[in-house]
Amino acid sequence: MLVGLRDATVTTSGGKAATLGTLLRAGVPVPDGFVIPFDAYREVHALGDDRPGDRPGVALAGLPEPLGDALARGLRRLGDIPVAVRSSASDEDAASASTAGQYESVLGVIGRDQVARAVRQVWASLGSARATAYRGALAGTPAMAVLVQPLIDADASGVMFTPSADDGATVIESAWGLGPSVVGGTVTPDTCRVGRDGSVTIVVADKRTFVGRDGPRPVPAADRERPSLGVTTAVQLARLGEQVAEVLGGQQDVEWAVAGGRAWILQARPVTAGIPPAPDDVRFAPPGALTGTPGSAGWASGPARVVRGPADFPRVRPGDVLVCLFTDPAWTPLLRVAAAVVTQTGGMLSHAAIVARERRIPAVLGVPDVTTRIHDGDRVTVDGATGVVTLT
């Protein structure tokens, strides 16, 4: 009823799990676990519930008893340790669309009841507003498999893009703690570029928060502007990324974690839209212009719409420039409307930046204090290739 991660295939378990299984078999350090396959989701769906993540009254926190028993056995084999429960949908991690951040992950749960509830939560995310908006008019209804792996209690984590055909550098974004702060854009990460010759350049950010097993917390003052990755670890990650790209074939978007000096690969998928090249110089930005990290190339001008939460969503109109602290994946529907996006935190490898590139709208990330320096209704111009935002 469960599928070992090493045995996962696209047909049974989705692209994310199948890719991790391929990497495991190739000797890449991936946390080994198991998958609740598509068939289990379809079985619950067939009981007459169109939203199996919300179906009440089923034994074992909403799982059929045979599946609950299998889940308990699988957790015992892992040692009843904290685990990560993550999506592996049939439409996820494709070459043409990443579905970045659209489905749920639940980290640090322990015991069969907590894990069972987390599985239901991941199933339910298949029909969430953000996922539905991302899929748009695509035909068919996807299915959801669920990954269960040991939680890597990371000292630092993040995302890297392996080198493209015309760029020999691995780009790594990193921050303290677990990965959601980087992929979700809630922190402005450190950025490393590792050349094929082993040269390393690191731009250190002011990392104000991190995500631990117990949720978001402030970073101690002494660590905020301390590099979250050393040069040796950055080179190690780049070489590991090159190994992933060789095994899978082609440039890869890789999520990673480092714990106790050991690097782990948590996810790998094709790069659906490349990052803008690093700008040579922004010294010639107009006086008063704001600068951040180029996240998605392009140019757009329009009225600023400062959004601080879901209550502000109805105010966003086609052609507005979305200005916000960060873009939670639940905000994906706004990226179908906005002409551009500017965030106060986040990096170019965050889910928001990836989706902006897929939507082909300009994005500038990590602009300090942008939500107070730009006011609702100000007319702004966004240059996503240089990272310059100008009040016009």
Structure description:
The protein has 392 residues and is α+β, with helices and mostly antiparallel strands. The protein folds into three domains: 3-150, Dna Ligase, domain 1, CATH 3.30.1490; 156-270, ATP-grasp fold, B domain (D-amino Acid Aminotransferase, Chain A, domain 1), CATH 3.30.470; 290-391, Glucose Oxidase, domain 1 (3-Layer(bba) Sandwich). 26% of the residues lie in helices and 27% in strands. The protein contains eleven helices and 21 strands. The protein has helices at 10-25, 38-46, 59-62, 65-78, 112-125, 129-135, 180-183, 221-224, 231-248, 351-359, 370-373; strands at residues 3-4, 34-36, 83-89, 105-109, 144-150, 156-161, 170-176, 190-194, 200-203, 209-212, 215-218, 252-259, 262-270, 290-291, 293-296, 299-307, 321-324, 340-343, 363-365, 379-383, 388-391. It has an eight-stranded mixed beta sheet with strand order 14-21-20-16-17-18-19-15, covered by helices on one side. It starts with a strand and ends with a strand.
Q: Any descriptors?
A:
alpha+beta; 6-stranded antiparallel beta sheet; 27% strand; 26% helix; 3 domains; Glucose Oxidase, domain 1; 21 strands; globular; 8-stranded mixed beta sheet; 392 residues; Dna Ligase, domain 1; 11 helices; D-amino Acid Aminotransferase, Chain A, domain 1
